[in-house]
Write a structure and sequence with these properties.
The complex is a heterodimer. Chain A is of the alpha/beta class. Chain A has helices at residues 11-22, 49-62, 72-88, 95-114, 156-161, 172-181, 203-210, 273-276, 354-359, and strands spanning 2-6, 26-33, 66-70, 119-121, 127-131, 134-138, 162-163, 218-222, 227-231, 250-251, 254-262, 267-272, 278-288, 297-302, 310-317, 320-329, 336-341, 344-351. Chain B has two domains: 15-25 and 262-374, Aspartate Aminotransferase, domain 1 (Alpha-Beta Complex); 27-260, 3-Layer(aba) Sandwich (Aspartate Aminotransferase, domain 2). Classes of the chains: A alpha/beta, B alpha/beta. Chain B: This is Cysteine desulfurase.
Chain lengths: 360, 382
């Protein structure tokens, strides 16, 4: 098969390329240039200048062609600006989902088809399983590296064309060992971090630069509008959070948490932990990887990148889906709510803000 | 394992149609380089070894100067086209306002001295400079102008109307600097006859080695020019640094060999290629203007340049899109944008025939291009 391998320059995708070539496939490497490498890209993050050199070095050493794809404009429009806009709308976005969904699995995948590739492979830790009704998306063997939550928006058509050879690896050490067996220069390279486009780990600066109205200190208020404290900037707050509330962390003997963020007024709204939880939430832009029954299905939902999935019932609606939680929880608007059946992803969507939920 | 092998299916024959990026080395150039490489002396040394090296250097200078119609002392050797262009702009452009063509190479576009007044000169849809705008700009009040317009465009091969440009610049007392990196060796050139004030060329675009170029200045007397770096005062104090003799000998031999080769066969092969490409659905960009015989710029509507390049490369065909960027990514073409091509600007590839191209090469390109044009285009969102 002719397989296009999306290479970040890291050890994972390099091993994917080397292994597929060793299996006899015609491998073509491609690295997305997501931003100007001369800019302040974060060290240890994806796709800065050094990463392109590393990807190319691996391809040259193994003797397969490698191309650098200019995705700067697309990445800025479809990931960075949407990321900042979501914060400005009081949400806590997941830019990696937008990147996988757009730049990687739409643009790059289209390019792979354009050059006559039969499949596209990535170094994501997720399993693609051939099921009775086509390809299924599952959690990987290595739970510590599970990236399935970030890939929920992969469509069935995309999944059909994609390959994730690392989904069966027991752990990262095994991947590094394989990299060494292949003699890859990147075998010992440190892992990349999330939010590859933010330098110094400070996405706050980036968003505040794009939305200056959000910058600066503001008030912490309770649900009645009473000012109960001050904060350094709304960007630092996510719904469900208890940290950074200072003296407002406990009011009238009750532990408090963030129940809303109002970027336009630079206000953080808090409420008592007990009593603020919800049992119903609404999700938008739902991607189904199964044919969802109209009456809904019982499954588990995961609403943050790292948390235990919780039992729920998911009912498809015209606007997306309604999620009925067995136990109340505090979902953060903008985050993904992914539906699992065991290890398998059934679908998922983005959590709507509460007012949008009640209006719907 | 070499870069030229492919795992999996059969290895296609490689054909190289990217001469405007760099020409294959001419045998005459290789021979001259090897001979010069064995000379130990530094041309600046007073001893016999130095004299021998100097003789080779000055012989090269005499030949290049005579061939291109300048006085020998007005041939300044540089490390290549970029340096020759930047040296002209910095060394001859002080106190002048810059009028620079929108379709110039980055060597010129990004070589304008910091702080100098700068106006971009637009081109028409065929890629030729708008003479009416040039004249209006020249007629503006202010310091005398320093006009930068290339002889032949690197992406399209389009020639600017140089005789008319020179005439206008004479009328208004402007300096005309011409980037002839793509034209030198591919068409007859005489600075004295054509009348530009300075002209830059590069060795490897003529089939010589990379790392050598020249700046030529019109006029009988050695022109004064402030160096970019003074060094040991080489090149009559106008370009410091020990001259790279083998590279310069190669440049000189390549220039002579290229001018001895008639351009007509290249034009015929290009015509065949363009005809087939158009039949497959391509649009020739700049096709209405006079062009270099070896260059064609082809847009395939609905197909991004990146995918075309990759596909052709996987089929053994080396071509390019836009100007090569150091990271290897395919950047949008400022040249085609300036010509107002819209979406077609991002769907164009450049095919530039090298001096040793064969009819078989053209046929193989036509097959690969036709197959690409016929294949399905996946729908891309966004």
């Amino acid at each position: 098969m002719r397989i296009l391998v999306a290479m970040s320059g890291g050890v994972d995708s390099s091993v994917v390329a080397a292994r597929l070539q060793a299996e006899g496939h015609e491998v073509i490497g491609a690295t997305l240039q997501l931003y100007d490498s001369r800019g302040a890209a974060k060290k240890g993050a994806c796709c800065a200048g050094q990463d392109i050199r590393d990807a190319r070095a691996v391809a040259d050493r193994l003797g397969f062609p490698h191309y650098v794809i200019d995705a700067e404009r697309r990445f800025k429009d479809s990931v960075i600006e949407r990321f900042a806009d979501a914060y400005a709308a009081g949400e806590t976005p997941v830019p990696c989902v937008a990147c996988n969904q757009g730049v990687k699995f739409t643009d790059l995948l289209g390019l792979a088809k354009e050059i006559g590739a039969d499949a596209m492979a990535t170094g994501h830790y997720v399993r693609r399983v051939e099921g009775p009704n086509g390809a299924e998306l599952h959690r990987p063997v290595d739970e510590a590296r599970d990236q399935s939550w970030f890939l929920f928006a992969t469509t069935r058509e995309q999944l059909d064309f994609l390959r994730f050879p690392l989904g069966d690896m027991p752990d990262k050490a095994a991947v590094r060992e394989e990299a060494e067996r292949f003699g890859l220069v990147v075998a010992g390279k440190p892992d990349s971090q999330d939010l590859c486009f933010v330098s110094d780990g400070s996405y706050v600066d980036l968003v505040e630069k794009m939305h200056p109205e959000m910058a600066g200190p503001g008030e912490i208020v309770d649900s009645s509008g009473r000012v109960v404290g001050q904060h350094e900037g709304v960007m630092r707050f996510t719904v469900g959070q208890s940290k950074r509330l200072g003296n407002a962390a406990r009011l009238d003997g009750e532990r408090q948490m963030v129940v809303g963020v109002e970027p336009g007024r630079r206000r953080v709204v808090i409420g008592p932990r007990e009593g603020s939880y919800v049992s119903t939430l609404s999700v938008r832009d739902v991607n189904w990887l199964v044919d969802a029954p109209p009456e809904g299905l019982v499954c588990r939902v995961q609403m943050r990148a790292r948390e235990e999935p919780r039992p729920a019932r998911v009912v498809p609606t015209a606007e997306g889906a309604t999620v009925l939680l067995e136990e109340p929880a505090m979902p953060a608007p903008g985050q993904a709510c992914v539906f699992y059946d065991g290890s398998r992803i059934l679908g998922g969507g983005f959590i709507r803000r509460a007012e949008a939920t009640s209006a719907a | 394992m070499s870069l030229w092998t492919r795992s999996g299916s059969e290895t296609p024959r490689r054909i190289y149609l990217d001469a405007n990026a760099t020409e294959p080395l001419r045998p005459e150039a290789r021979e001259a380089m090897l001979a010069a490489a064995d000379l130990t002396g530094n041309p600046s040394s007073v001893h016999r070894a130095g004299r021998m090296a100097r003789a080779v250097l000055e012989d090269a200078r005499d030949q290049v100067a005579k061939t291109l119609g300048v006085a020998p002392l007005n041939c300044i050797f540089t490390s290549g086209g970029t340096e020759a262009n930047v040296l002209a702009m910095h060394g001859l452009g002080q106190g002048r306002r810059f009028l620079v063509g929108q379709t110039e190479h980055d060597a010129v576009r990004k070589g304008v001295p910091a702080g100098a007044p700068l106006t971009w000169l637009p081109v028409d849809t065929a890629g030729q400079v708008r003479l009416d705008v040039l004249e209006a700009e020249l007629a503006q009040d202010g310091p005398p102008a320093f006009v930068c317009l290339m002889l032949a465009n690197n992406e399209t091969g389009v020639l600017h109307p140089m005789a008319e440009i020179v005439r206008l610049c004479r009328v208004y007392g402007a300096h005309v600097h011409v980037d002839a990196v793509q034209a030198a060796g591919r068409m007859a050139l005489c600075v004295e006859e054509m009348g530009m004030d300075s002209l830059a060329l590069s060795g490897h675009k003529m089939g010589g080695p990379k790392g050598a170029g020249a700046l030529l200045l019109r006029g009988p007397a050695p022109a004064r020019l402030d160096p970019l770096f003074e060094g040991g005062g080489q090149e009559q104090g106008r370009r410091g640094g020990t001259p790279p003799l083998p590279a310069l000998a190669g440049l000189t031999a390549a220039l002579q060999a290229s001018l001895a080769q008639p351009a007509q066969p290249l034009a015929v092969l290009r015509g065949k290629l363009e005809q087939a490409a158009v039949a497959a659905g391509a649009v020739v960009n700049g096709g209405d203007a006079p062009r270099l015989a070896n260059t064609t710029n082809l847009s395939l509507p609905g197909r991004r340049a990146q995918g075309q390049l990759m596909r052709l490369d996987l089929d053994g065909v080396c071509v390019s899109a836009g100007s090569a960027c150091s990271s290897g990514k395919v950047a949008a073409s400022h040249v085609l944008d300036a010509m107002g091509l819209g979406d077609l600007a991002a769907q164009a590839i450049r095919v530039s025939l090298p001096w040793n191209v064969t009819e078989d090469d053209i046929n193989q390109f036509i097959r690969a291009y036709g197959a690409m044009a016929q294949s399905a285009v996946p729908t891309i969102a966004g």
